[in-house]
Amino acid sequence: MNVCMIGAGYVGLTTAAVLAKLGHTVHCIDENEQKIAALQRGDIPIYEPGLAELLTDYKSRLFFHHNEQHIKEADVIFICVGTPPDLKGKPDVSYVHRAMDTLIPYIGDHQTLVMKSTVPIGTNERIYKRLKNEGKHVRIVSNPEFLREGSAIYDSLHPDRIVIGLRDDDDRSLSVMQTLYAGIHAPYVVTSLNGAEMIKYAANAFLATKISFINEMARLCDAYDVDVTDVAKGIGLDERIGRHFLQAGIGYGGSCFPKDVTALIQMAYEQMVRPYMLEATKTINDTQIYWYIQKMKRTLGALAGKRIAVLGIAFKPNTDDIRESPALSFIKKLHALGADVIAHDPKVVVPNDVNVKQAKTIHEALQKADALIVATDWDAYKQLNWEEVKGMMNGNVVIDGRNSLPREAIMNAGLNYIGVGRG
Ligand SMILES: NC(=O)c1ccc[n+]([C@@H]2O[C@H](COP(=O)([O-])OP(=O)(O)OC[C@H]3O[C@@H](n4cnc5c(N)ncnc54)[C@H](O)[C@@H]3O)[C@@H](O)[C@H]2O)c1
Ligand SMILES: O=c1ccn([C@@H]2O[C@H](COP(=O)(O)OP(=O)(O)O[C@H]3O[C@H](CO)[C@@H](O)[C@H](O)[C@H]3O)[C@@H](O)[C@H]2O)c(=O)[nH]1
């Protein structure tokens, strides 16, 4: 099939590469001219494992443009533009509407419009009506994306499910989508346009709630001298609960969970529904770094003037994405408290607006540090030689922001290990 992808970010680029691998021809359009120029040169603007290889392997079927050409020839048009939060935390759908402004002159009745961006409930119905008012009888599909950054290619090729939202009178789009995704083996969930939009928000809200739940349990474990990793294992082996997303730490971040939980809260308020659980999920996440700061103060005293090495800036390992990164929030908070912070990340460069030193190597970050915080659980940090770490540091405090470091090895090296809820 001939596919047009509007928006070549994490989702658009990954989806384009995967569809090219499945045999389709994909034309990517992005309003960011620099991004398109880089992609045309063969440079990949983001770090995502396996993406560069796919884009190279299937380059004969992948094209990058910053204008509307090729929209007309597409069988399927995907919208993958961003929907970031506005100042009130509501999703800003202006990028979606601008993409529609671009599409409308070219789009025709034979085409299928697929929404991959995460959009507020009711958005696709509104777009359908807008198109109809403009005399365009285009079929519209809500096909939310569930990939995780850091494993985006694998997730796209092996999704747990494919959600397809359709209008009642659409008897064609399901087979279009099945043809498009032929080669990907996953159960289909077919629902209404609003249903598909709701599934996306509910999935992210549920996963975020699991994380906040285990973080609250971790606080209780701190109080009752219990190891939360045992609790996570003990409850997670119950298949009704499941073992995933029970890793306590400094909280969830990224471009999706914070934004989507807040968006769902806002959507609930708009309908006069009080979202008690979502509010709690967000509150726990918003206060988790303070929990760590209190622990640090109890061990280190005042943080002003202390040299603190923060390992990890990205919101999770295997990505260079820092959107809503808890590691970055932690860095900013420590800096505000007067600490002398030096940060390291294998892929991220500290943005200019963050007033913090960045070390080129882990070794450089650790030199003379009073405390070390692992804020993003990159493998390289988990595999550190803790005897060597001890030798480089001035102090002996290791804060495990992801409960993922080898506690015994750290303590055996004579360091003071502080996780959350580790007894
Ligand atoms: N990042 C993820 O892991 C992920 C996973 C699932 C769903 N989503 C959702 O997918 C959507 C895209 O997320 P992302 O992380 O890929 O965003 P992104 O910011 O990485 O990419 C969006 C791209 O769209 C381009 N763009 C914006 N408006 C445009 C327009 N009118 N015409 C052409 N190009 C335009 C931007 O220049 C940018 O390159 C969001 O709604 C997000 O919530 C993201
Ligand atoms: O047990 C856990 C699992 C994750 N996290 C944190 O939660 C955040 C999100 O992690 P993850 O879900 O792995 O990454 P994302 O790429 O943000 O993916 C989420 O958000 C995407 C965008 O909507 C969805 O498509 C995915 O299904 C959903 O997992 C990160 O800060 C993680 O460190 C924890 O603190 N504890």
Mean pLDDT across every amino acid position? 97
Sheet/helix structural class: alpha/beta
Query: CATH-wise, what's the superfamily of the largest domain?
Result: NAD(P)-binding Rossmann-like Domain
Number of helices: 16
Q: What's the architecture of the largest domain in CATH terms?
A: 3-Layer(aba) Sandwich
What is the highest CATH level, the class of the largest domain?
Answer: Alpha Beta
Number of strands: 14
CATH topology of the largest domain: Rossmann fold
The count of domains is: 2
Q: What share of residues are in beta strands?
A: 5-15%
General shape: globular
Order of helices and strands: EHEHHEEHEHEHEHEHHHHEHEEHEHHEHE
Largest sheet: 6 strands, parallel
Distance between the termini: 56 Å
Radius of gyration (Å): 23 Å
Could you list the spans in which at least 5 consecutive residues all have pLDDT below 50?
A: none
> Level of helix content?
40-55%
Strand order of the largest sheet: 3-2-1-4-5-6
Task: Characterize the structure shown.
By secondary structure, this protein is α/β, with parallel strands linked by helices. The protein is 42% helix and 14% strand. The protein has helices at residues 10-21, 33-41, 51-57, 94-103, 123-133, 152-157, 173-180, 193-224, 228-236, 257-270, 276-300, 326-336, 362-366, 379-382, 386-392, 407-412; strands at residues 2-6, 25-29, 62-65, 76-79, 112-115, 139-142, 162-166, 188-192, 307-311, 340-344, 357-358, 371-374, 397-400, 416-418. The strands form three sheets. Strands 3-2-1-4-5-6 form a six-stranded parallel sheet, with helices on both faces. The chain has a six-stranded parallel sheet with strand order 11-10-9-12-13-14. The chain has a two-stranded parallel sheet with strand order 7-8. Strand 9 (307-311), helix 12 and strand 10 (340-344) form a beta-alpha-beta unit. Helix 1 packs across helix 3, helix 8 (193-224) packs across helix 10 and helix 10 packs across helix 11. It is globular. The termini are far apart. The model has no long low-confidence stretch (mean pLDDT 97). Residues 118, 145-149, 204, 207, 211, 245-247, 249, 252-254, 256-257, 315-316 line the site of uridine-5'-diphosphate-glucose. Pfam families: UDPG_MGDP_dh (PF00984), UDPG_MGDP_dh_C (PF03720), UDPG_MGDP_dh_N (PF03721).
